[in-house]
C-alpha cells in the first residue's frame, strides 16, 4: 500500500517552509526588493512593463495558488484560522519577550510575513503530518 513513498521528515517540512518564505518575501517585503515594489511604479502606465515582470507575476501567482489551495484543502477554514491564531500568538510572544520595538513597522512586518509563511508551510505539510500521526490516508490519494 505504501510502497515507493518516502517518509515525511523535518527536512521535508523545512523545504516547504523555505519555499513558503521565498514565495511570501518575493511577493512583498519591507526591504523594497520584492515583486510589489518592482511593479508598483508602472501600475498607472502599463506600457513601461516588460515580459520579465509578467513572467515573475505569473510564477508568483502559480505559487500562491498552489500554497493556498493546499492549505485550504488540508486545514480547511477552521484549521487555517487556528494556524493563523497559533502563529499570531508566536509573533505576540516574540514582540513581548524579545527586544524588538513594537513601533518599528518594518520589524513587525517581517514577523507577520514570517508568520504567514509558517501558516502556508503548515498547510502544505499538514496532510503528510496527519498521515504520519494517525496512519490514515487522505481520501483524494490513490494506491499505485
Percent in strands: under 5%
User: Kindly, what is the distance between the CA atoms of the first and last residues, rounded to a whole number of angstroms?
Assistant: 8 Å
Main beta sheet strand tally, sense and closure: none
Q: How do the SSEs run, as a string of H and E?
A: HHHH
What best-fitting shape do the alpha-carbon axes yield?
A: globular
Radius of gyration: 18 Å
Helix fraction by DSSP (H/I, runs of at least 4): 55-70%
Number of helices: 4
* Structure class: mainly alpha
The count of DSSP E runs of length 2 or more, i.e. the number of strands, is 0
Low-confidence stretches: none
Q: Report the average pLDDT across residues.
A: 89
Provide the domain count: 1
Tell me what the structure shows.
The chain is mainly alpha-helical and 144 residues long. It has one domain (10-134). Helix content is 69%, strand content 0%. The protein contains 4 helices and no strands. Helix 3 (51-97) crosses helix 4. 15% of the residues are buried. InterPro entries: DUF6524. The chain crosses the membrane at residues 12-31, 51-68, 75-95, 107-126. Keywords: Membrane, Transmembrane, Transmembrane helix.
